[in-house]
Amino acid sequence: MGILGDSYLDKESILAAVNAVGGKEAFQVHLGDNAVKIVRERSDLRIVLTIPYQVHELFLEVEHLVSGQKIEDWFDYYGEAEKSGFWDDLKRFLFVLQECDIRINVCGKSAEYGYHDQWHYFCGYLYDKYVDQSETEQK
């Protein structure tokens, strides 16, 4: 079966998806005992996408290297229908890591990527309404 039909998630199927994106100059691939880590580093940000073996989950971490501010998020996919969503999201995240500018948004609770002259949600809290009002009043 191709990578979209595999029910067992292993190193080879993950690497096939990474290689399908092509042109991996923007990030580094680290093969671990339990997961593949995709790392993109810039002067101000470090972005890590962790893809564990044997489960359809993705973990994202965006860290501002100067301030130490960190955004973490995870995505899990259960059931046969959701597995295709896993592969779609993995390809999208790899594309963003390779092609797009990434920033921590103004509220500091999520990360965004720039594409076609607009900023789009990448990970973290989706809406600013989740920001604690006491935090914003102190700024």
Q: Would you spell out the secondary-structure blueprint of this structure?
A:
Layout: H1 11-21, E1 28-31, E2 35-41, E3 45-52, E4 57-64, E5 70-76, H2 80-99, E6 101-104, E7 110-115, E8 118-124, H3 133-138
Antiparallel strand pairs: 1-2, 2-3, 3-4, 4-5, 6-7, 7-8
Descriptive labels:
139 residues; alpha+beta; five-stranded antiparallel sheet; three-stranded antiparallel sheet; 3 helices; 27% helix; globular; disordered C terminus
In short:
With 139 residues, the chain is α+β, with helices and mostly antiparallel strands. Helices cover 27% and strands 37% of the residues.
Summarize the structure in words.
This protein has 139 residues and is of the alpha+beta class. It has a domain at 11-101. It contains 3 helices and 8 strands, in the order αβββββαβββα. It has helices at 11-21, 80-99, 133-138; strands at residues 28-31, 35-41, 45-52, 57-64, 70-76, 101-104, 110-115, 118-124. The strands form 2 sheets. A 5-stranded antiparallel sheet has the order 1-2-3-4-5, with helices on one face. A 3-stranded antiparallel sheet has the order 6-7-8, covered by helices on one side. Strand 4 and strand 5 form a beta hairpin.
